[in-house]
Design a protein that fits this description.
Length: 389
């Protein structure tokens, strides 16, 4: 046998900009960041719903690039939302547009939309020519405070969430706060769950900040929302950059706290239940379980649930009651799917303190079952008392 092991050193620059009105004539942030790459050609993919919510946007984008020296290939409107990643039709359409516009590896594809749109269009961009330079413009709370600053893009396949996709670091991420204020209230609020999540697994002081600003956040006060988004995005990005496993080759997935149940609930609903509200339920469940299994102080779990209630994030979903032929809750299959996804050994992060996660490799299923019962009775009591839960 002859064997040769080579080390291939690769580092990536992960550029993240927070700005407002990136396409205003007097805002140079975007041009400065594009100048760093030296590319000449630009195409823009814009989610239709965003275009509809901000009628002057296409004109602003066209004016912005019209005044500059880049070779601007136009704005392509594409539908977004969860259906965009339900199959490969959006991906194929984007490939065709990239090809027709002669976009090469050195060109920039700006992708403006919510998390689902960024996933589908980002996957197409990241695979065309083995990777065109992707500049993400996340437009929802969730995509600005979590997914947009990440390094993954995927679409659903074989009825499974994110089955086909890539790890690839975008050329840049531009979090333009202006987009936060064109979302509907539900989407604006729901994405806060990923900020709570990252606080719980990474930074107790951020969790305390959320508690202190609960009233302002609950009414979606614009300035507080923007601060929360920025803090959350930076914690996510810092974990990716410094956590030692940016492309998730190991089993430990701290940013997926509460996600095993969330992914299963989403799939069970045929993706009618979207990611953020599903994570709120999954996060509540794993928090209660962390306490009942003896890892987390019960008073800390109560603080988490109080924050979720204060933000009017629903901590229970009736689909938790759905059962398979053997009488087992269907959501529990989410644990097996998580195990399979990780390559054999189940690794789920639970809480041993606020801001402190711990990996566990098995679950006490009867206890988990009782935790769902607990969530249900909290929710029913709250509903009877007329709370916003
Ligand atoms: N790649 C990753 O690492 C990663 C991580 C977490 C979540 N995700 C994915 O992100 C998706 C959820 O993203 P989301 O919560 O942003 O939802 P979304 O993309 O479905 O957007 C929610 C709704 O808001 C609309 N919208 C988006 N921006 C708007 C704006 N500025 N104004 C008006 N309407 C707007 C969309 O059309 C959609 O109807 C899920 O598919 C999830 O799997 C991916
Ligand atoms: Zn998530």
């Amino acid at each position: 046998m002859s064997r040769y092991d080579f080390q291939i050193p690769v580092t990536f620059k992960h550029r993240i900009v927070f700005t407002r009105d990136a396409f205003a004539a007097d805002n140079a942030d975007l041009m400065e960041i594009l100048a760093e790459g030296g590319g000449r050609r630009v195409i823009v993919f814009l989610e239709e719903a965003v275009s509809a919510a901000w009628p002057g946007l296409v004109k602003s984008i066209t004016g912005y690039f019209g005044a500059g020296s880049l070779d601007f290939r136009g704005v392509v409107n594409v539908p977004g939302g969860e259906v965009a990643k339900a199959d490969d039709s959006v991906v194929r359409r984007v490939w065709a547009e990239l090809d027709a516009a002669h976009i090469d590896r050195h060109s920039y594809a700006l992708v403006i939309g919510g998390g689902a749109f960024l996933d589908a269009v980002g996957y197409a961009v990241a695979t065309a020519h083995r990777g065109v330079r992707l500049v993400r413009f996340p437009t929802t709370t969730l995509s600005q405070d979590d997914s947009g600053v990440g390094v993954k893009s995927a679409i659903n396949f074989f009825g499974k969430k994110n089955w086909v996709g890539v790890f690839s670091v975008p050329f840049a991420v531009v979090n333009d706060f202006r987009f936060l204020h064109t979302q509907d209230e539900e989407t604006r609020r729901a994405g806060l769950i990923e900020a709570v999540k990252v606080a719980l697994v990474k930074d107790a002081s951020f969790f305390e900040w959320i508690e202190e600003h609960l009233t302002a956040l609950s009414i979606l006060d614009p300035e507080t929302l923007e601060q929360c988004v920025e803090k959350s995005a930076l914690l996510h990005a810092r974990h990716i950059a410094t956590g030692g496993d940016p492309f998730e080759t190991g089993s430990s997935r701290p940013l997926d706290f509460g996600h095993w149940a969330a992914h299963k609930l989403e799939a069970m609903s045929g993706y009618r239940l979207s990611h953020a509200p599903a994570v709120a339920v999954g996060l509540a469940l794993d928090t209660i379980y962390s306490a009942r299994v003896g890892l987390l102080e019960p008073a800390s779990a109560e603080r988490v649930l109080r924050v979720l209630d204060g933000l009017s994030l629903r901590t229970y979903h009736p689909d938790l009651e759905l059962r398979d032929e053997s009488g087992q809750r269907r959501v529990f299959a989410g644990l097996d799917e998580f195990r399979e996804h990780l390559g054999g050994e189940l690794t789920v992060l639970l809480l041993e303190g606020l801001g402190r996660g711990v990996d566990v490799h098995e679950f006490d299923m009867p206890l988990l079952d009782r935790c769902i019962g607990e969530l249900r009775s909290r929710w029913e009591t709250g509903a009877r008392a007329g709370s916003t839960q």
